[in-house]
Fold these 3 entries.
Entry 1:
Amino acid sequence: MRRKVLPRLLYGDRSLTSTRRRNSILNVHHCGSLINHPDEEKMNRKQPGFRVRCLPVLVSALFALISPLAAQQTELKLDPAKTRIDWTLGATLHEVEGTFRLKSGDIVFNPNTGEASGQLIVDATSGDSGNKKRDADMNKNVLESAKYPEIVFSSKHVTGFVPGQASSTVQLAGTFTIHGASHELTLTVPFTANNSSVEAHTKFSIPFEEWGMKNPSNMFLKVDKVVQLSITAVGELQSATQPSAGR
């Protein structure tokens, strides 16, 4: 048999190569049929070359299923004019209360994976307690806002979000940067939604002295080493489908 086959290959007999080409085409069609007929896989998975023939088709099918999910993004864009940031600092005689202004807020996340990006940026120079002298001292000696003019929360991950729910509580993990230093922080955020409009709330503590900021206490006034922050955010949820994972 070998003596007959070798001359046919050497001297141009195309019958063998044509047969191989037909087999190759049949293999492709057969592999594709396994997707629709899983019972055939049990009968054919032991055939020589089965895995080699079918791997490209199966990989392509897998990517076709995954790609639409990876591209689904949701964006929360906050309205600085409607968002309120309050802070409270305990003192010997009374609590000191004040506000900050939100410069911008935009968070993009994938509801399927929880992967998130985007930032909430607060104007560090906007601290207002109703006392100009106290606010000037806070900006100059505590926040050093001329050197560090922004307070930033950079989002990394969202858990607990269910599309379509009117109210829910999510966990928003990220990095909180203040006074030039970054700290890992996870916020618990209850929110309510009315169509695309969203109102969210969160509270957390900032151990400002532990984080390297000066304690403004003096011989006449003693203040706590932790300031309480409360945020009421108002914004819009919208689709932010993107062709790639980056932003």
Entry 2:
Amino acid sequence: MSSLMRVARNPQGSTPSFRGAPIVRLDACAHGAHVLASENLRSHPFRVQPFTAAVCCLADFLIAILADSGTAADQRPVLPNPDARAKVPAEMKPYTEVIEHTDATIDMVPIKGGEYVMGSPDTEAGREECEGPQHKVKVEPFWMGKYEITWDVYEVWMFDLDIQRRKLAHKEENARDKAANEYQLSQPTEPYTDMTFGMGKRGYPAICMTQFAARTFCQWLTAKTGRYYRLPTEAEWEYACRAGTTSAYSFGDDPDKLDDYGWDYDNSDEAYHKIGQKKPNPWGLYDMHGNVAEWVLDQFIPDYYKQFAGKVAVAPLAIPTTQFPRVVRGGSWDDDPERLRSAARGKSDPSWQEQDPQIPKSIWYHTDALQVGFRVIRPLVEPSEAEKKAKWDKAEPVYDRKQGRR
């Protein structure tokens, strides 16, 4: 790679150089640097200025090319976190994502890629028809949230808490703050009631959001950290939940052992609970069985698995084309034990908006989905912008987050 290309890409925030002369990024935004100048400009204005101008023009040109080719990760300003860096699976390690200007955190666990058998056998107790046929799936490596997203983190986005704290500390906006504003300011609209419904807030999972809201949160988190986050696919979620097991639950087939691993209707006292109170699955993920059901990216299609019979599905995703139904996984505090099985598929329903007094209904809140939350993943290899648009970030109907806020 040429020196000029390194100047344009510079993803880790280090000071770039050209033939030993330091080049300083003076102004960066979510779409990359617009101005580059030499530190030597003041001391050697006549000798350096023409060269610096040429570098600036060429850097802008290269950035435009990189944008077209879909290397957004190289242009985003990255929040430094050495443990979050990895280029190959062997380098992946657990890390904690800190939401800048706050004390809110998200613990991430590395999930190595591989193949597994998705779905449930005909003999599994509690099985539903939509869980078959069983088929092989290939999954690429990713990090996954150790816990479900809590109100502590979600309300930073909901109520602009990071912006408030930054202003109180008299700190100027940095490039990440400016990029995050696109997905944060006035988004979402304020809820019309207490969305915890008295079940608890600090350390408890966030609930009642639409899939669209969860997706927008991920876009904000991506801009806020410089690392690409999204919801898992249904296949990725089940792969992580199973954690190498083939039984009904990640701890075996006996639902009587569920008390040690998850919250369901029988042990929850009809409410969600603080994250991480039960035992984790073999890969160190908590509350994969119960507490709150979790959004994934997929549309719910009852016979979706049939197309993969006898094949190996590679990174499958049922791209949403309608608002309902969409898939939730893991079961919840309000479900019977069989709904908490690794292969069990839940789905959204218009009744989740029944108490919403707004006309039209909110794009941000499912006021009757007290059992639904989410957790995030971060793929080891970030897809290109074209791939995101065509697959990972694609969903219909399309909502205008600004003009269509409600």
Entry 3:
Amino acid sequence: MKIRLILSCFVFFVITLCSCQSQLSGAREAEGQAAATGKPQADPKVVLEIRLVLEKHDKALGEKNLDAVMETFVPGANTVILGTGNAERYVGVDNIRNAYTEIFKDYDPNTLDVSCDWKTGEHLGDLAWLAATCQAKDSLKNKERKYGLNVSAALVKYAGQWRFTMLHMSNLTCPPTP
């Protein structure tokens, strides 16, 4: 279970980063769609700010810098990370810190490769959400692993900075049925 959480964290941030980058490049196209649908377009400044949070988290994971990882989360009692199973629930900053301490033990640094076939996200005021489905591979003790992931997250503006308040990662735990 810990291994899946570790892998999921890496994948989530790579996925979300890609999602934010595609939102930035599609801002002009969204402008026309927003006018046609009445739906507001993504603010490029907000997209950039969220991308920077993702980059900070990703860099901290690669460096196994626990304090920098924790700076990307809201320091609240209800901030949560969820995995696939019922027991994969880490609520509050102390539990999240403990989870990342274990996560750092379970992967080879700089081995993640992710390909996302679907991603989406939006922000409204001081709230943003992201979701993606991906195929990923990495290694543990130089042994390659491949897996699929579903990822979702919510970020809020906290003390003037975007931070995660919820992160959910799940992956297939048994072979698919024919």
